Amino acid sequence: STRLILHSKAQTTVMHLAAEAGSVEDLELEDVLSVGFGGVKCVESGGPEPGVGCAGRGVITAINFLEEEGAYDEDLDFVFYDVLG
Predict the structure, then answer these.
(1) Distance of alpha carbon 2 from alpha carbon 41, whole angstroms
(2) Total structural domains within the chain
(3) CB half-sphere exposure, 65, CA atoms < 13 A
(4) Which domain holds residue 10?
(5) C or N terminus of the chain, fewer CB within 10 Å?
(6) What's the distance, CA 69 to chain centroid?
(7) Residue 23 confidence (pLDDT)
(8) pLDDT value at position 80?
(9) DSSP state of 52
(10) What is the mean pLDDT, run by run of 10 residues, along the chain of 85 residues?
(11) What pLDDT does residue 34 have?
């Protein structure tokens, strides 16, 4: 979803980084947030491999993490989500 905004670079997902770190609690906002074209802040939630689990789990985990880390600050003009389904 964010690849074009990030100049064709694939972004590592929150779920992938959390798995590497051991838990989402071991991540910082700077670990998951990338800034692309026009200063757009991007985060990819990710999820389990297809057929293995619930994709919604990744979205919920990412949104909760972003809220706890203060990502939704007053400087944002808008937030949009691109969700499967």
Answers:
(1) 9
(2) 1
(3) 25
(4) 1-85
(5) C
(6) 12
(7) 92
(8) 85
(9) T
(10) 88 92 95 94 82 75 93 90 71
(11) 94
Q: How many CA atoms lie within 13 A of 42 on its CB side?
A: 23
The single residue listed with the structure tokens 């074009």 is 4
Q: Are 20 and 29 in contact (CB under 8 A)?
A: no
Residue with tokens 């979205």, as numbered in its chain: 59
Residue 21's pLDDT is what? 95
Tokens of residue 34, six digits: 């990338």
CB of 55 within 8 A of CB of 81? no
DSSP line for 3-30: TTTTTTPPPPPHHHHHHHHSSGGG--HH
36 contacts: CB under 8 Å, gap ≥ 6 = 2, 5, 6, 7, 42
Q: How far is CA 15 from the centre of its chain?
A: 8
**Can you read off the two tokens belonging to residue 8?**
């064709």
Tokens read off for 13:
């997902």
Residue written as tokens 């939704």? 72
